[in-house]
Write a structure and sequence with these properties.
It contains nine helices and ten strands. It is of the alpha+beta class.
Length: 234
């Protein structure tokens, strides 16, 4: 599966996360987790999501932004299986909450993007690189990217022990850079070869309290693979 950083609900770049737990356990900890916000709901990435994702990645724009080659549907399923088992990644599919909670269709019908945390520092498991993609054009510019980022940061801090976040964004993606800065990220580096900006947020106690306030509406639920149109509360 190929991911792109997306800040303010616009596509941008791609790449790696981890936590304080043993790495194999850490990246599978979210396999039964649903995080429901006001605009977006995060669910584990399963084979039921592959067809829609495959359709997204036929887009020349997304291929360019992710530096990706088009894959066959079979290759996409193989990629999903490898990401599901990868010990260095924490992956969620992003659904539109209104449609999903309103039983407007299956999860595939409600998909709008994806979000990842990657292990970026093998010597410091408290560092995570965050990447977000809002792939559906109609869902960009509506705050979906911002809430997705906040929820994933909340999950990283409270469940994975992440205290330092990084985001790598294409220099041309001013909307994404602006979004991360509004979330208190600071620009720390510019790679002119790859035309990429690195932003960073160190989560001190004040930042943690702010993050918890921003996500106090988020509901954590149990994910049922057999009932992928809905999740039941724990």
């Amino acid at each position: 599966m190929r991911w792109i950083t997306c800040g303010s609900a616009q596509p941008c770049g791609r790449t790696r996360l981890g936590g304080m737990r043993p790495r194999l356990e850490t990246m599978k900890i979210n396999q039964n987790t649903v995080l429901q916000g006001k605009k977006v709901t995060l669910v584990p990435y399963t084979s039921a999501h592959v067809c829609r994702y495959h359709e997204w990645m036929k887009s020349e724009e997304l291929q360019r932004l992710t530096a990706s080659e088009p894959l066959s549907l079979e290759q996409e399923y193989e990629m999903q299986r490898s990401w599901q088992e990868d010990a260095d990644k924490c992956t969620f599919i992003v659904l539109e909450t209104e449609r999903w909670s309103g039983q407007a269709g299956t999860e595939e019908d409600c998909m709008v993007g994806d979000v990842n945390l990657f292990l970026t520092d093998m010597e410091d498991p408290t560092v995570g690189e965050i990447e977000v993609m809002i792939a559906e054009p109609s869902c960009r510019g509506r705050g979906f990217g911002k809430e997705t980022t906040l929820i994933m940061m909340f999950y990283g801090v409270t469940k994975l022990g992440i205290t330092k976040f990084e985001a790598k964004v294409g220099q041309e993606n001013e909307a994404s850079i602006c979004m991360f800065k509004k979330l208190n990220f600071k620009e720390v580096a510019v790679n002119r070869i790859f035309q990429e900006v690195t932003l960073r947020l160190d989560v001190n106690e004040q930042q943690k309290q702010w993050l918890l306030e921003q996500t106090n509406h988020v509901e954590e639920k149990h994910y049922s693979v057999n009932l992928q149109t809905r999740a039941s509360e724990t």
